[in-house]
Every structure is written in structure tokens, then in C-alpha cells.
Amino acid sequence: MTIRVLIADDQVMIRDGLAALLSSDPEIEVIGQAGNGLEAVEMGRALDPDVIVMDIRMPEMDGLAATAELVGEPLSADGDPAGLRPKVLVLTTFDLDEYVYEALGAGASGFLLKDASAADLVNGVRVVASGDALLAPSITRRLIGDFARRRRHQRPSPGATAGLTPRELDVLRLIARGLSNAEIAAELVLAEQTVKTHVGHVLTKLALRDRTQAVVYAYENGLVG
């Protein structure tokens, strides 16, 4: 299945470079390029991409505001509320932690360093499209933990996990530690397909969009420290 990608960056050379790298993968199709956040929102609504590779610092509207608008509403051209929301892969650097915190709050699904390799870029788009894992664990685990601790008071819901089974709670805690389905299966001595089913139940019961939200949720509710 082809992954349809929209690239949003205010620098033409960067957009063209990203487009060339991504288009080299036969399973990725770059369907458009936006030069600012407003264009990203407009093109996202019109084109229904699977993934938007989003820069943060852009004119007109920054990538954080654009992410919040795109993830917070359906994108079908006819306004159908059942329209799919895109996954947003935010481009960031080590010295922009505050922006990453805001991107998490806006609903971004993953983060990629601007000096990442071509292979990392392609893999990052694939990972975000599938919703299967966090990107750049060396960065995101620290940032998500700190982000959630800062916001813990904003979600006073200690009983929110009451609807989960003990096994689903175990899976949620391991997701929060950054483990993949295969690693969770090995940890709990389960079949990987069983773990995938548990993950789906966790996301559905807690009304979470993807694993990134599950990690934040787990930290916010004190399930991991």
C-alpha cells in the first residue's frame, strides 16, 4: 500500500531534497509540498495525505499550529466527519525541546532530527504511517517523560485505566517504555499478533489516536516514572 506524503517546509531546497529522498522509495508517494503552515493546512484538507512531514518554524502559520488544526479535524474534501486524520512527523533539532513539547500537545505522532539519514527519513515515515512505534527513542523518551510530568495536573483521572484488563495495563506500560510489539511479546511471552490485539484494545478503550498518545497518557497517569 502506497504511503501518501505531504511535505511542509519554508525552504524550497529542503522540500525538494526531502521529496527526492522519499520518492526514491517505491511505496512512498509525495503528493504535494507546502511552503508554510497555512498552505500545509489547506493542502492537507484537499489532498488527504497519510503523513505530513512538518517543519516547525514557518511563516504565516508555524508547524505547531498547523499540526493542531490538521490532527484535530477530519480531512475529507466533502467535510465528512469520518474522514481520516493524517499522521504528522515533525522535523526538529536537539536544541528545540520546548517546540517538541508543544508538538506533542498539538498531536504530532513522531519526531525526526533534521540531520537524520535518508534511511531514517524513509523509516520514520513508515513508522508514523503505521502508528507502530515512536521515533528517535533517544530523544522522545526523555522529552515525553518530561512533557507528561509538566502536564500531569491537567488530566486528574487516576481511575481512567479502570476499563483495561491487567494484561492490557501491562502492554500499556511496556508501550510507554518504548518497546515494539515484538519486544512486548517477548517480555510477556505472548504471540506478537496477541500483543497487536491488546494494543488495539488499549487505544480504543482510552480513546487514543496512536502509540505516541499512549506513551504520554501512561506518563500523565503515573503508570511509568
Tell me the layout of helices and strands:
Blueprint (H helix, E strand, L loop, with lengths): L2 E6 L3 H12 L4 E7 L2 H11 L3 E4 L8 H9 L15 E6 L4 H10 L3 E4 L4 H13 L6 H15 L14 H11 L4 H8 L3 H14 L5 H10 L5
Parallel strand pairs: 1-2, 1-3, 3-4, 4-5
What does this structure look like?
The protein is α/β, with parallel strands linked by helices and 225 residues long. The protein folds into two domains: 128 residues, Rossmann fold (3-Layer(aba) Sandwich), CATH 3.40.50; 64 residues, Arc Repressor Mutant, subunit A (Orthogonal Bundle). Helix content is 50%, strand content 12%. The protein contains ten helices and five strands; from the N terminus they run βαβαβαβαβαααααα. A five-stranded parallel sheet has the order 2-1-3-4-5, sandwiched between helices. The chain is globular. It starts with a strand and ends in a 5-residue tail after the last helix. About 4% of the residues have low confidence.
Rg (CA only): 17 Å
User: What overall geometry do the principal axes of the alpha carbons give?
Assistant: globular
For the secondary structure, the number of strands is: 5
**The CATH fourth-level homologous superfamily of the largest domain:** Response regulator
* Biggest pleated sheet: 5 strands, parallel
Q: How much of the polypeptide forms β-strand, as a percent range?
A: 5-15%
Spans of at least 5 consecutive residues whose pLDDT stays below 50 are 74-83
The name CATH uses for the topology of the largest domain is Rossmann fold
Order of helices and strands: EHEHEHEHEHHHHHH
CATH architecture of the largest domain: 3-Layer(aba) Sandwich
Ends distance: 38 Å
